[in-house]
Amino acid sequence: MRGTTGRIVTRMKKTADNALYRFGVSMEERLVKSFDEFVTASGYRNRSEAIRDLVRKRLSNIRGTRRTGVVAAIASVFYSRMFSRVTERLGALRSSYSSVIKGEMDIPLRGNSCLQVFGLLGEASVVRELEQRASSIEGVQHVETVNAPFEALSDFSPRPSDVPLHESNPLHSFLDDGGSLDDETDTAYLQTTLDEFSLRGKAALDAGCGTGRGTLALYERVQPDGRVIGVDFSAAALEKARERLGNRVELRHEDLLALTLPAASVDFVLCNNTFSTILDQSAFLRRMRHILRPTGLILVVERGRSSSDEFSVPVPSRSNLSRMFSASGFLLHRLESNGNTLVLGSTPGPGERAIRNDFSKARPKEE
């Protein structure tokens, strides 16, 4: 038996019920005092309960770091802005690992101390590599990654049927009654925009197809060999779309945030006058990134409306749009916000990585 401070005593004794083992733990008095305060504050009945719980959690996290395949995790990065290049290098890290970073938050703490939190979903080896690279950045003081329980991980599972698809947004009541934000002017603008792309033979998705005006324009441009899927949460709007389109396209009554299309199944996503009605736009972009094939395109179009319109809704600023698309793993090729908003992005091809572009200072060259 070793009685060295901070080490576990190796001699163990079985209890009578043959289920529990007793062993001794040696630690500094100051640490014992802090631990007892933790036990009391956390509501444990005794030290043993607290130790068992802490050991289970720690072992679960260690097993998570050894996993293979896809894992979900939260990475907490504590850093100091006193180091001149730390924010620049963290930005480069975000760009390099945009394929697994699904969300992020930068939290000022005190003085120059900050906390960067990343929500991660990806291959376990890539998540571990990100943690190691973050730890090596000068100015990063501590990095900790917590893996979600593997058995709790599900890939975009649908919402329960009793949960409204879009809560607390009065616009959706109007749309669910078969209303439409599109008019003939919007359709003409969309047709002209779609003519810029070579869509023949492609698999295309109209995300938020409404009554099918834009869906028809998309269908005409993928023929004769392509196919179009139209998705909308409004059953009434889809009925009007069926009247317009017949069986020429596949129409789905689904929530865009829980879309059940398989990964890498479409070449082109059109989001026409729908983006500003989506409550969680970042989640929508991540979902579209999931279903697009490599080098696939996403086109977001929002026609400008006057503030007197009954359902005028705000569109994110150029800088916020840029950050949103880049953080979701898209390469940005075009961003316009001159009354109408148009964003064109693509999924990276082999050997490419998404980059973070700042469109807030200068207008990008259009392709």
Note the topology.
Layout (H helix, E strand, L loop, with lengths): L7 E7 L6 E5 L3 H14 L4 H19 L4 E11 L5 H11 L4 E10 L2 E11 H12 L4 E8 L23 H6 L7 H11 L8 E5 L5 H10 L4 E6 L2 H11 L4 E4 L12 E7 L8 H11 E11 L15 H10 L3 E8 L1 E7 L21
Parallel strand pairs: 7-8, 7-10, 8-9, 10-11
Antiparallel strand pairs: 1-2, 3-5, 3-6, 4-5, 11-13, 12-13
Instruction: Enumerate the strands of the largest sheet in spatial order, edge to edge or round the barrel.
Output: 9-8-7-10-11-13-12
Given as residue ranges, the uncertain stretches (5+ residues, pLDDT < 50) are 1-18, 154-171, 306-312, 354-367
Structural class: alpha/beta
Helix content: 25-40%
Describe the oligomeric state of these chains in a short phrase.
Answer: single chain
Give the averaged pLDDT, no decimals. 77
Described by strand count, sense and barrel closure, the largest sheet is: 7 strands, mixed
Give the H and E element order: EEHHEHEEHEHHEHEHEEHEHEE
Q: Any idea what the radius of gyration is?
A: 26 Å
Task: Please report which band the strand proportion falls in: under 5%, 5-15%, 15-25%, 25-35%, 35-45% or over 45%.
Answer: 25-35%
Tally of helical runs = 10
| Distance between the amino and carboxyl termini | 73 Å
General shape: elongated
Annotation, overall tally of beta strands: 13
Which features would summarize this protein structure in a list?
367 residues, alpha/beta, 4-stranded antiparallel beta sheet, 10 helices, elongated, disordered N terminus
What does this structure look like?
- Helix content is 31%, strand content 27%.
- It has 367 residues and is of the alpha/beta class.
- The strands form 3 sheets. It has a 7-stranded mixed sheet with strand order 9-8-7-10-11-13-12, sandwiched between helices. The chain has a 4-stranded antiparallel sheet with strand order 4-5-3-6.
- The N and C termini lie far apart (73 Å).
